[in-house]
Specification:
Strand order of the largest sheet: 5-13-6-7-9-8
Helix content: 25-40%
Number of strands: 17
Low-confidence stretches: none
Largest sheet: 6 strands, parallel
Shape: globular
Radius of gyration: 23 Å
Strand content: 15-25%
Mean pLDDT: 92
Structural class: alpha/beta
Length: about 425
């Protein structure tokens, strides 16, 4: 298994829990920690969702599952070495980059992705601790999905409400120094087309010290939608449109029917120009613009890849090479694209498992040398973080949390993570 996020762990769980064919699973991940986007993509104040890690941990603790973090495919291992070791190889490494807008000014300083911002406040070790200084007074977040809502909420929320969470110390300090007073959520379509979940939408309107401002005209001609989520979202929007400003210190502005046309500025983003359906334009003051217009997968050398969709093409989870089965499978975002929520992966994991088990007889006829892939990685100097190493990282984060009187504080730098894991890391 390549990828220790929810998609990969759900497939591992499905494989070791089924009883038709005995299975053992080794899970490799580039990062020294498991849980993927659950750890590095879910906002720190969404405690219920983050608690799903306990369920995933039970799979990692299964006798027939092993975890090897800090092992990168393409750097420490090759696809050929994996196929020479295992009867089946499953790719579950997600969508690691984001889509661009393709508008003038997008390369200016102050233009960034919401994915990068989320990685920063979630303590992803690949993101520099000082990636965001938050000196901007006005921020535009482009997108009508939950990632955009998360970014806006973290920017507008009183940072002291985040102090009891696992947010890294450097992020909490930056949020306490933040100059942000206005956050603009910008979407090219109408409120009836927004992809927000109602629960997250309501959270925005309940933030202390925050006014949500919305033009009632945006709700004209929304029709009578039949989808339950859309109807509930429109109820929230109608509530917001009827509110009067209270003079709160921070504001969230909702902009619909506003297509991003350009980012304005000489040496730094100063405004976002949006175009409306009638052809008119509006310039929204913003010293920071975060685009949240979708994630996409990254090509891995030696693996088939569809550039248009940003996915590994599959049929019933099977990766095909020249029309023949290869002993390779893909699941999660890297196979279907960045759609659905974390729980969506549990259903798709069952389909991946069923394909692997259906192919079991053919897979077992493959000539393999168990242990050879890890040996090759170690020979290149890899330092795998095992389950014991992850437990040591976990213990260190819990210990740091006691300083802030909360359950844990994340280690957010590679050196910290590997140092914490090293005393018990095998190899």
């Amino acid at each position: 298994m390549i990828g220790a996020g929810p998609a990969g762990i759900y497939v591992a769980d499905a494989l070791v829990e089924q009883t038709d064919v005995p299975a053992t699973v080794d899970i490799f991940d580039r990062l020294p920690t498991p849980f993927g986007l659950l750890r590095y993509g879910v906002a720190p104040d969404h405690l219920k969702m983050k608690s799903m890690s306990r369920t995933l941990q039970r799979t990692l603790d299964h006798d027939n599952v092993r975890f090897f973090g800090n092992i990168e495919l393409g750097r420490d291992l090759t696809i050929e070495e994996l196929l020479g070791d295992y009867h089946a190889v499953i790719y579950a490494f997600g969508a690691a980059t984001d889509r661009h807008l393709g508008i003038p000014g997008e390369d200016l300083p102050g233009s960034d992705s919401a994915r990068h911002f989320v990685s920063w406040y979630c303590g992803d070790p690949d993101t520099a601790p000082d990636a965001f200084e938050l000196t901007a007074k006005s921020v535009a977040v482009i997108g009508l999905g939950n990632v955009a809502l998360d970014a806006a909420r973290v920017l507008a929320r009183d940072p002291e409400e985040l102090a009891p969470t696992d947010v890294p110390d450097n992020v909490l300090d930056a949020l306490r120094r933040s100059a942000v007073t206005d956050v603009h959520i910008v979407g090219r379509r109408g409120p009836q087309h927004a992809k927000f979940t109602t629960k997250e939408l309501r959270e925005i309107g309940e933030l202390a010290g925050v006014d949500v401002l919305m033009d009632p005209a945006a709700l004209d001609d929304v029709g009578e939608p039949t989808e339950t989520v859309v109807r509930r979202n429109l109820e929230v929007f109608r509530d917001w449109a009827g509110r009067s400003p209270t003079g709160a210190p921070r504001r969230i502005h909702m902009h619909f029917f506003s297509r991003p046309a350009a980012m304005l500025g000489d040496d730094q983003v100063e405004a976002l120009r949006v175009e409306h359906p009638d052809g008119s334009t509006t310039d929204i003051e913003a010293q920071l613009v975060l685009r949240s217009v979708g994630y996409r997968g990254v090509r891995l050398d030696g693996l088939p890849f569809d550039e248009e969709s940003g996915t590994v093409p599959t049929a019933d989870s099977r990766v095909r090479r020249d029309g023949t089965a290869s002993g390779e499978y893909a699941c999660g975002w890297i196979s279907r694209g960045a759609t659905g929520v974390i729980g969506t992966n549990r259903h798709s994991a069952q389909g991946t498992m069923q394909s692997v088990i259906a192919d079991a007889d053919a897979l077992r006829r493959r000539d393999t040398k168990p242990g050879s892939a890890l040996e090759a990685a170690m020979a290149r100097g890899a330092r795998p973080v095992t389950l014991e190493g992850w437990a040591a990282i976990d213990a260190e984060e819990i210990a740091r949390g006691k300083v802030r009187n909360n359950p844990r504080v994340k280690l957010a730098q590679w050196e910290e993570l590997l140092s914490a894991a090293n005393p018990v890391t095998k190899g």
